[in-house]
Design a protein that fits this description.
The chain crosses the membrane at residues 75-96, 108-126, 138-161. It is a single chain. Helices cover 84% and strands 0% of the residues. The chain has 193 residues and is mainly alpha-helical. The protein folds into 2 domains: 5-64, no CATH class; 69-191, no CATH class.
Length: 193
């Protein structure tokens, strides 16, 4: 397959935004489209422009891959679950009497800081449109942080053994479900570029 300068620039723009295996796959399709356009039009410049127009500009192609990325999907699921689980734990801690006050203030502040950082990473992963690697890394960092925080919460509850309550049960189930979401997402985020 013959190439063209416009095709090469288009692929270079995609290579700056997407993982190499994806760009390799896209290159095959774009070069095949260019060859088809060359047969149809006979003019290399017109064929390159037509192939790129059919294929989509770099922004459109990148946005489609970012939208369908495992990182964005994982971040979206955790952002949906976050407020539900957070409100459950907030209600438990507000009604928790003495056992909740045994958690040291520095631990609470550290937890709040890490939770805030995770939320910011999740929002970044959901809102980013042009950088696939940014979405992946933000989602991976946030997913790991959320899993660790939920595990710490469950461990703290098991250590302190608060009196059972329906609110506590809902919060425990919510954290367990979020850990399972993270456990499903992390291998995929690590394995796929």
């Amino acid at each position: 397959m013959a190439g063209h300068e416009l095709i090469e620039r288009h692929l270079q723009a995609l290579a700056e935004r997407l993982p190499a295996p994806m760009v390799d796959e896209l290159a095959d399709g774009l070069l095949a489209s260019y060859d088809d356009q060359m047969e149809r039009l006979g003019d290399p410049d017109a064929a390159a422009r037509a192939a790129i127009a059919d294929f989509g500009d770099a922004d459109t192609v990148t946005a489609a891959f970012v939208r369908a990325s495992p990182g964005r999907q994982a971040a979206f699921r955790l952002l949906i679950a976050g407020p539900i689980v957070g409100l459950s734990w907030g209600a438990v801690l507000l009604t928790g009497d003495a056992w909740a006050s045994t958690i040291p203030v520095p631990s609470r502040l550290t937890f709040g800081f890490l939770l805030g950082s995770a939320v910011l990473m999740l929002v970044l992963a959901v809102r980013e449109r042009r950088r696939y690697a940014t979405v992946r890394l933000a989602a991976l960092g946030a997913t790991g942080t959320v899993a660790v925080l939920d595990t710490v919460i469950l461990g703290t509850v098991l250590t302190l053994l608060p009196p059972p309550s329906p609110l506590l049960l809902v919060a425990l189930i919510g954290s367990s479900a979020r850990i399972m979401l993270a456990a499903q997402a992390i291998p995929e985020l690590v394995a796929h570029p």
